[in-house]
Amino acid sequence: MANKTRIKDIAMACGVSIAAVSRALKGQPGLSEETRQRILAIAESEGYDFGRLRSGRIKRLLFLLHREHNIASALPFYSSVMLGVADACRENDIAMSFLPIGPEDSLAELINLHQPDALIAAGYLETETLVELRKLALPVTLVDLWAADFPCVNPDNFHGGFIATRHLLEQGRKRIAFLGHSQRHYSIRQRVEGYQQALFDAGLSLPAEYRVEAPPVKDIEQALVEGMDKLLALPQPPDAIFAYNDIAALVAMRVCARKGINVPQDIAIVGFDDIDAAAWAHPALTTVAVDKRELGRDAFRLLLSEQHERNLLLPVRLVIRESSLSATAHSQLHPTR
User: Domain of life, per the record (predicted)?
Assistant: First the structure.
C-alpha cells in the first residue's frame, strides 16, 4: 500500500508550518540548518515518500479561482482559461486539479490536500491571499491578475478598453458611460484607464456620474441592473455603454429592452471577453475578444519558462457586431422595406 504521510502530518509532528516543511524537503533557503535536519529526520521516521521530490519536474498542477467569480458572471470566461491550462497539462503529462478559494480559507492546508508541484491562480485575489501564496515555496503564475513578485499573464486590458471606446466615438457617440464592477480587480482598472484615455484623446470630459461601479456583492447582476437604471435616469442619459465584460453588457441590453430603449439606435453597447453568448444576443454584441484558452496556455508556458519573464500581455481585438453600430450603419444593414 502506498504511504500516505503528508506534508501536513510532518508539519504537525515538527510543530512548524507547512511552508517550512516544503522548504526543508526541497532544500530551499529560509530555514536554519538545525530546523531543516529535524524536519528531514521526522519526515523519514514518518515514512514520507521522498520520491515525491521531483527535482523541478512538475507532475501535479493546481488551478485556483476565487469563489467570488461565480457561475453566472465569471465562469463563461474562466472555464475557457482553465481548459487552456488543462490542454497544456495533458500535452505534458501533468495532472491538474481545481480549488475554489476565499479569504477565510486555511489556504496552505487546502492546497496541501492536492499535493501540487505548482499553482496557477486566476482572477481577483485579496492581498492577504497573495501573501499566503508567496509563503508556499511553490512556483506560482497569476492569470488575469497582476501583483509584484509573481509572473503574470493578462489580456491587454488597457488597449481593449481604448479600442472599444474609440469605436463608439467613431460611431458618433458622445456620452459614453462605463458600466463596471469593483476596481479592486486589476483587469477592470486597466479597462477603465483605456476607456478614459480614449475619451481624453477625443477631447471629451464626462461627469463622474457616467462611470458606474457595481459594488462587490454576491448578486452582481442585480447590482448591474441598478447601475444601468442609474445611468438611464441621468438628465442626459448616455448614448453608449462600454461594459466591463459581456455579462454586464448583456444585462445592460436587457434593461434597455425592458424600458423600450432600442439598441443600437438609441444607445450603443460594447462588452469585453467575447463569450459565446455575445454572438447569440439580439442584437449581437460588439465586444473585445480575448483568446481565453490561449491565455490559459500562456500561463502554463510562463510557469515553466526559464526566461523569468514577469508580465506577458495577450493581444486583444475588437469584434464589431450590431449592438454598437451608428444609426446610418444600422439602417444600411436593415433598410426599410
Answer: Bacteria
